[in-house]
C-alpha cells in the first residue's frame, strides 16, 4: 500500500485550479482566426453568412454606446480649440472719423502730460514711455507726434480738485466721563503759504485749525469743511463727501482734525458759519467763538491749549495721492509732543480735473464718452498685437495702456461703476468682431454687478447705452445658440466650456432687468433662449434630412439615409442629456433635453411613419434589413426616454411605431436562421479540430458558433419588442431556430470527426477531445443565449422565471446536448476499455506471492498517463465527465473479473478490495478529483457489497440476505398492498406468537380482477431456527382485502430472536387450482423490535397491543446479490438454501 500511495495523481489535483471556460470576446486571439473581421476575397463561398454577421456586428457595435444614460466623461472626447464663432464688422465698435481720431489723440496726450498724483507699482511712471506708446497706437510719425505734444503743452493746464470721502474712524480716545467721545472732523486744504514752518521753536507742533491763525499766514475760509458730530462713540461712521479745489498739486496739503464736542447744535452752527467769514480777522473771531462754545459745558482752562478735546489730526500732501485714488486707513497723529492721541481714520481720496483745455471737452463730449472712445481704440490696438490666440484673449492690457486709461478715468472723475460699464460696453461690442474669452466678459459683468449694488444709479443716457449693449450682446448670443451644434459641439470640452460661460453671461445680464428704467429685453431672456433653441433644432434637422434622406428620392433609396438620420438624432439626444441639459438647467433654468427630445422625436417619427407606409408593399430582403436597423434605433430612442426617471414613453410620437415594422422583423429573423446555418457550416468546413491557441481547448468553429449565438442574444435584447403577444411569437420562433442551429452544429461536428482517420493504437483521441470541448462550450453559449431570449409576458410572472415555451426549449436543448456529450464521452472512453480490462485481468491473475500494491501499480500508472493527456486536452467539466465514465468502466471491469472467478480464496477478494480503495484514493486526489460521495455510489456499492459477501461465510451470507430484506423499503407503498399483523413473545412458554389480521389493496392476479390470497409465515435465517417450519393461513377466495385473524405459534428461544438478522417473513401468494401459485408480495418484520424480546412483557393481554402495518414489496437487486453470492458456493448449506429460494422464485413475477 505504501508503494501505491507514492503514485500520486498530480493531474487530478490540477483540475480545480484551472479556470473554467468562458465565452471569448471578439477581440481575443482565439477568435481572430475563427471569425476574421475582414475575410479575404475567395476565402468564403457566397452565402456562407460571414458578410451577414459582419453587418450584424456593426449594428450591435452601434448599440454598445446606448446602454443606460450617457455620462459627460464618455461624450467629451476632444480638448482641441473650439470652432471659430461668426464675426460681423457692422456689429463692432464704431469707426472714428479722422477729426475724432485727432481729438482723441490730443485727449490722450493731455492726460499724460498733465497727470497729477503718485503712480502705482503696476503703472508706468515714465512719461516718455507713455507718450511713445500713444504714438504707436495712433500711428503718427515723430514730427507729427512732436507737434502734437507742443500743441498740448501750450494748452491751458487743467483745474484740479480733490474728492475726499470721510468714511469712519476707530479706536479713538475717550474724552467724556461716560467713557466715550462726541467726535467730528474739520478738514481743508493748506496752500503752500499756509503750510507749517519747520524751523523755529515750534517745530515739534503740527498745524491745527483752532490755532492756525496764530501759526501761519491767512487760510481761505472756503477751504474748511466739517462733518457731523457722532455722539457717544469711539468708532464713528460719517460717510460724508467733500470736494476741494487745488491750486498747486505739488505743494498743497489736505489737513484733517478730529475733535470731541459736548454741544452739538452750537458747535455745528458755528462751524458751518466759517464759510460765511471773509478775511483773516473775521475767521479768528469765529475760531474764538467756536472755542467758547465748545467749552461752555466743560471745565474752564487755558484757551490756548484745549488738549482735552483734541483727538488727532492728519496731514496728506496732494502730490502723494495715487493717480487712481485710494481707499485707506490713516493713523491719527498728535498735534504736539504733549498731545496724546490714538486710533485710525478711513479716507477715500481721488484727484480729478474739473476743467480741461482739449478738443473733446470744448466740443461738449463728456469724460464718459471720451473714455469709451479711448478704451475702444486702445483695446483694438492691444488685441491686434495678440493674434497668436485671439479667440482666447482675456483683455489683458499692457502697462502703458492700463496707465493711460487709469489716468484718464481718474481725471474724468469716472466712478467705479462707470468704468466697469464702459469696459463691458466696449469689450462686448469688440467681441462681436474679434472673439474674446467669455470668461473675461463674464468677469466684466460681475464687476458691473458688484458696483451696481452699492452705487447710485447711472445717468439716463449712460443707462440707455448699457441697455443697448445688453440687447446687442444677447442678440449675438441667441444667434450662436441657434447654431449650438456647430459652434459648441458636445464632443469638444473647450467649446462646451465656452458655452457654459456664454450662458452665464446671458444669465448675468438678466439679473439687471429689474434695475433698468429702460428694459433692454422685450421678453424674458430665457424665453428668447428657448425659442432660439427650438428654431436651431429645426434648422439642424432640416439640414440633416436634406443631406441624408431628401424627400424627392424613392423610398428604398431614402431608407439608408433615414437610418443615418435616426442614428444622428440619437447621438444628438445623448449629447443634449449628457452635456447640454445640465448647463441650460442650472444656468438659465431651461429644460433643454425635454425641449429637444420632444421636437426631434416627433420629426423622426413623422418620417418613419411615412416611409414604412410607402415601403410595406415593396418588402424585399434589402428593405427588410434597412427597416430592421431603423427600428432598432427608433426603439433605442424610446428606451432612452423611458430610462430617465419620471418619463413615460406612451406619450411619445414613436409610441406604437413597432406595428408597421413587424413584417420586416419577421423576414429578417428568417434570414438570420438561414445565415446562421451557413455560417456554422462554413466554420466547420475550415475547422481542423485543433485548439485555436495554447490557452484554449476548443477549436475555431466553436468560437465562431459561440460568438454567433452571443450576437443573436444581444440583438434580441436590443430589439425588445414591446407587444407581449408578438414578442412571444418572435421569441419562440427564434429560440427554436437557435436550438436547431445548435443541434445542426453538433451533427456537423460528428460527421467531421467520423470522417477523420484515427491513429492506430491511440487511446486518447485529440479530435474527440476537441469535439467534446466544442459541444460543452456550445452548450453553455446556447443556454446563455436562450436565457437571454426571454420576452415580456402579458400575464404577470414571477421575477426571474423564463416563459414556459422558452424554458421547455432550453431544457430540451440542454438535455440533447448533455446526451451528445455523454455519447462523445462514451466514444472517447471506449478506446480505453480493452486496456482497462487487460490491467484488471493482470490483477486477478497475479500470484498471491506479490504484494497488492505491486499488482495494482500497472493499472494506476496507465490511468495516470492517460489522465495527463486528457487533462491537457479537456476542459474541467469534460474531464470530470470522462473521470466518471472511466470510474464506471473500472467498476464494471472488476465486477466482470469477480463473476469470472467464483469460489476462490479470500485473498483473491481481499486484493480486489485493496484495488478498489486504491482507485478511490486515486480518483479523489485529496479532494481535487471526483467527490467521495460520487465515487462511493451506484456500482461501487454493489461491488463493495459483493467483495464483502465474498469474504463472508455461508451463514453470514444467508444472514445478509435477511438483513437486506429488513432494510428494503417499498418504492410505492400502495402498489402491492398492505398486511396488518401483531407479534409478541411469551417468555414463560418460550414461544413467538404471530397473529395475521388482514390484508388490503392486494394486486389482482386472476382473470376476474381478484385474487385468492393466503399468507406464508416463516422465521429466518434457517440456521437460527433449524426446527421451525413455515406455516400458512387459509385461502380467502375472490378478494383483494382478505381478513384472516389467525394465530401462529413458534417455539423458539429468545436468544435466537435477539440476533440482528432474525425476522419473521410474510409471503402473500395467490392460490391457483390448476397452475402454480402466484407471488403477490412479501414483507419482513425484525424480531428484535417485538414485544417480550426487546423488553419484558408487563401485564395486560397480548391482543391489546397495537397491530403493525407492513407494506408488501418485491425482492430487489440488493437482496438478490446475496443470493447470487450463495449460488457460487459449493457447500451443501448454501446449495440447499438457494434451492429452496428458487422454488419460491418460480412463482414470483419479475419485478416491474
Automatic annotation (TrEMBL):
Chain ranges of the MHD2 domain: 853-961
Domain C2 intervals: 141-300, 975-1101
BP-aspect Gene Ontology terms: exocytosis; positive regulation of neurotransmitter secretion; regulation of dense core granule exocytosis
Name of the featured protein: BAI1-associated protein 3
Xref: InterPro entries: C2_dom, C2_domain_sf, MUN_dom, Munc13_1, Munc13_dom-2, UNC-13_domain
Record has rRNA processing as a keyword: no
A Pfam family per the record: C2
Keyword terms, alphabetized: Cytoplasm, Endosome, Exocytosis
Record flagged with keyword Cell division: no
Principal location: cytoplasm
Domain named MHD1: residues: 628-749
Amino acid at each position: 500500500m505504501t508503494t501505491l500511495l507514492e503514485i500520486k495523481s498530480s493531474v487530478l489535483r490540477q483540475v480545480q485550479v484551472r479556470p473554467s471556460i468562458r465565452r471569448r470576446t471578439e477581440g481575443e486571439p482565439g477568435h481572430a482566426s475563427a471569425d476574421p473581421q475582414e475575410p479575404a476575397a475567395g476565402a468564403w463561398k457566397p452565402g456562407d453568412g460571414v458578410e451577414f454577421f459582419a453587418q450584424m456586428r456593426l449594428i450591435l457595435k452601434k448599440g454598445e454606446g446606448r446602454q443606460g444614460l450617457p455620462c459627460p466623461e464618455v461624450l467629451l472626447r476632444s480638448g482641441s480649440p473650439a470652432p471659430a464663432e461668426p464675426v460681423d464688422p457692422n456689429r463692432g465698435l464704431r469707426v472714428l472719423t479722422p477729426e475724432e481720431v485727432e481729438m482723441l489723440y490730443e485727449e490722450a496726450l493731455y492726460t499724460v502730460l498733465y497727470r497729477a498724483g503718485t503712480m502705482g507699482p503696476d503703472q508706468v511712471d515714465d512719461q516718455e514711455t507713455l507718450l511713445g506708446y500713444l504714438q504707436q497706437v495712433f500711428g503718427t510719425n515723430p514730427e507729427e507726434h512732436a507737434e502734437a505734444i507742443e500743441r498740448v503743452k501750450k494748452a491751458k493746464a487743467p483745474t484740479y480738485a480733490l474728492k475726499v470721502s470721510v468714511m469712519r474712524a476707530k479706536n479713538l480716545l475717550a474724552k467724556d466721563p461716560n467713557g466715550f467721545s462726541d467726535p467730528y472732523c474739520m478738514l481743508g486744504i493748506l496752500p503752500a503759504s499756509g503750510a507749517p514752518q519747520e524751523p523755529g521753536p515750534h517745530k515739534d507742533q503740527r498745524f491745527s485749525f483752532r490755532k492756525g491763525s496764530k501759526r501761519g499766514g491767512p487760510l481761505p475760509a472756503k477751504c474748511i469743511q466739517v462733518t457731523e458730530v457722532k455722539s457717544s462713540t469711539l468708532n464713528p461712521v460719517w460717510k460724508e463727501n467733500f470736494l476741494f479745489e487745488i491750486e498747486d498739486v505739488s505743494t498743497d496739503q489736505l489737513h484733517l482734525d478730529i475733535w470731541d464736542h459736548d454741544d452739538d447744535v452750537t458747535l455745528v452752527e458755528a462751524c458751518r458759519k466759517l464759510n460765511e467769514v471773509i478775511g483773516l480777522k473775521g475767521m479768528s473771531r469765529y475760531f474764538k467763538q467756536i472755542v467758547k462754545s465748545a467749552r461752555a459745558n466743560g471745565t474752564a482752562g487755558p484757551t490756548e491749549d484745549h488738549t482735552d478735546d483734541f483727538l488727532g489730526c492728519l496731514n496728506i500732501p496732494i502730490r502723494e495721492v495715487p493717480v487712481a485714488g485710494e481707499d485707506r486707513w490713516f493713523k491719527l497723529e498728535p498735534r504736539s509732543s504733549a498731545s496724546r492721541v490714538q486710533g485710525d481714520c478711513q479716507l477715500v481720496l481721488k484727484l480729478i480735473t474739473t476743467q480741461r483745455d482739449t478738443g473733446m471737452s470744448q466740443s461738449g463730449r463728456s469724460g464718459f464718452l471720451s473714455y469709451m472712445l479711448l478704451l475702444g481704440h486702445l483695446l483694438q490696438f492691444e488685441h491686434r498685437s495678440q493674434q497668436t490666440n485671439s479667440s482666447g484673449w482675456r483683455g489683458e492690457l499692457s502697462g502703458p495702456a492700463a496707465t493711460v486709461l487709469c489716468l484718464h478715468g481718474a481725471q474724468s472723475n469716472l466712478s467705479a461703476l462707470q468704468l466697469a460699464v464702459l469696459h463691458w460696453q466696449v469689450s462686448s461690442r469688440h467681441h462681436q468682431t474679434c472673439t474674446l474669452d467669455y470668461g473675461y466678459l463674464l468677469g466684466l459683468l460681475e464687476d458691473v454687478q458688484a458696483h451696481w449694488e452699492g452705487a447710485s444709479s447711472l445717468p439716463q443716457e449712460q443707462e440707455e447705452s448699457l441697455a443697448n449693449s445688453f440687447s446687442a450682446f444677447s442678440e449675438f448670443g441667441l444667434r450662436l445658440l441657434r447654431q449650438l451644434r456647430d459652434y459648441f459641439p458636445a464632443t469638444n470640452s473647450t467649446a462646451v466650456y465656452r458655452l457654459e460661460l456664454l450662458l452665464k453671461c446671458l444669465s448675468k445680464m438678466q439679473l439687471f432687468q429689474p434695475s433698468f428704467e429702460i428694459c433692454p429685453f422685450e421678453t424674458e431672456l430665457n424665453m428668447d433662449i428657448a425659442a432660439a433653441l427650438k428654431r436651431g433644432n429645426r434648422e439642424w434637422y432640416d439640414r440633416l434630412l436634406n443631406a441624408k434622406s431628401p424627400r424627392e428620392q424613392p423610398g428604398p433609396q431614402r431608407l439608408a439615409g433615414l437610418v443615418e438620420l435616426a442614428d444622428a438624432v440619437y447621438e444628438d439626444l445623448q449629447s443634449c442629456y449628457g452635456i447640454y441639459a445640465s448647463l441650460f438647467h442650472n444656468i438659465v433654468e431651461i429644460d433643454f433635453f425635454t425641449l429637444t427630445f420632444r421636437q426631434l422625436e416627433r420629426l423622426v417619427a413623422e418620417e418613419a411613419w411615412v416611409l414604412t407606409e410607402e415601403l410595406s408593399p415593396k418588402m424585399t430582403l434589402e428593405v427588410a434589413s434597412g427597416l430592421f436597423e431603423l427600428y432598432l434605433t427608433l426603439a433605442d430612442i424610446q428606451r432612452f426616454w423611458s430610462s430617465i426617471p419620471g418619463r413615460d414613453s406612451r406619450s411619445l410620437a414613436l409610441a406604437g411605431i413597432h406595428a408597421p415594422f413587424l413584417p420586416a422583423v419577421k423576414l429578417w429573423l428568417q434570414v438570420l436562421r438561414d445565415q446562421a446555418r451557413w455560417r456554422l457550416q462554413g466554420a466547420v468546413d475550415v475547422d481542423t479540430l485543433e485548439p485555436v491557441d495554447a490557452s484554449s481547448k476548443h477549436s475555431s468553429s466553436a468560437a465562431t458558433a459561440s460568438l454567433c449565438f452571443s450576437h443573436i442574444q444581444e440583438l434580441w435584447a436590443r430589439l425588445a419588442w414591446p407587444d407581449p403577444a408578438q414578442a412571444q411569437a418572435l421569441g419562440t420562433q427564434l429560440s427554436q431556430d437557435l436550438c436547431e442551429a445548435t443541434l445542426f452544429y453538433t451533427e456537423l461536428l460528428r460527421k467531421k470527426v467520423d470522417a477523420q482517420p484515427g491513429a492506430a493504437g491511440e487511446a486518447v483521441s485529440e479530435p474527440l477531445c476537441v469535439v467534446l470541448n466544442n459541444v460543452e462550450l456550445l452548450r453553455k453559449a446556447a443556454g446563455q443565449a436562450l436565457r437571454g431570449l426571454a420576452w415580456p409576458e402579458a400575464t404577470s410572472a414571477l421575477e426571474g422565471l423564463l416563459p414556459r415555451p422558452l424554458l421547455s426549449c432550453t431544457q430540451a436543448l440542454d438535455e440533447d446536448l448533455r446526451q451528445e456529450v455523454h455519447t462523445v464521452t462514451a466514444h472517447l472512453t471506449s478506446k480505453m476499455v480493452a486496456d482497462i480490462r487487460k490491467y484488471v485481468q493482470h490483477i486477478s491473475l497475479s500470484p498471491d506471492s506479490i504484494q497488492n500494491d505491486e499488482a495494482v501499480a500497472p493499472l494506476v500508472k496507465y490511468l495516470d498517463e492517460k489522465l495527463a493527456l486528457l487533462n491537457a486536452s479537456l476542459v474541467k467539466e469534460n474531464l470530470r465527465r470522462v473521470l466518471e465514465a472511466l470510474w464506471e468502466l473500472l467498476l464494471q471491469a472488476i465486477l466482470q473479473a469477480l463473476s469470472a472467478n467464483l469460489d476462490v480464496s479470500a485473498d483473491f477478494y481481499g486484493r480486489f478490495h485493496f484495488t478498489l480503495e486504491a482507485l478511490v484514493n486515486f480518483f479523489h486526489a485529496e479532494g481535487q478529483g471526483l467527490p467521495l460521495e460520487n465515487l462511493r455510489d451506484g456500482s461501487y456499492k454493489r461491488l463493495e457489497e459483493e467483495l464483502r459477501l465474498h469474504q463472508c461465510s455461508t451463514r453470514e451470507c444467508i444472514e445478509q440476505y435477511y438483513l437486506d430484506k429488513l432494510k428494503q423499503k417499498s418504492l410505492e407503498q400502495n402498489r402491492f398492498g398492505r398486511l396488518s399483523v401483531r407479534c409478541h413473545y411469551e417468555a414463560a412458554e418460550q414461544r413467538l406468537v404471530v397473529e395475521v389480521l388482514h390484508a388490503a389493496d392486494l394486486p389482482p392476479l386472476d382473470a376476474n380482477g381478484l385474487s385468492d390470497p393466503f399468507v406464508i409465515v416463516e422465521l429466518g435465517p434457517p440456521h437460527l431456527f433449524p426446527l421451525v417450519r413455515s406455516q400458512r393461513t387459509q385461502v380467502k377466495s375472490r378478494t383483494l382485502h382478505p381478513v384472516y385473524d389467525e394465530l401462529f405459534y413458534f417455539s423458539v428461544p429468545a436468544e435466537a430472536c435477539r440476533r440482528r438478522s432474525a425476522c419473521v417473513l410474510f409471503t402473500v401468494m395467490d392460490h391457483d387450482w390448476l397452475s402454480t401459485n402466484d407471488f403477490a408480495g412479501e414483507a419482513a418484520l425484525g424480531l428484535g423490535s417485538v414485544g417480550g424480546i426487546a423488553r419484558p412483557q408487563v401485564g395486560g393481554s397480548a391482543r391489546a397491543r397495537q397491530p403493525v402495518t407492513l407494506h408488501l414489496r418485491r425482492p430487489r437487486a440488493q437482496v438478490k446479490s446475496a443470493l447470487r453470492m450463495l449460488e457460487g458456493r459449493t457447500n451443501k448449506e448454501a446449495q440447499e438454501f438457494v434451492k429452496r429460494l428458487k422454488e419460491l422464485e418460480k412463482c414470483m413475477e419479475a419485478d416491474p
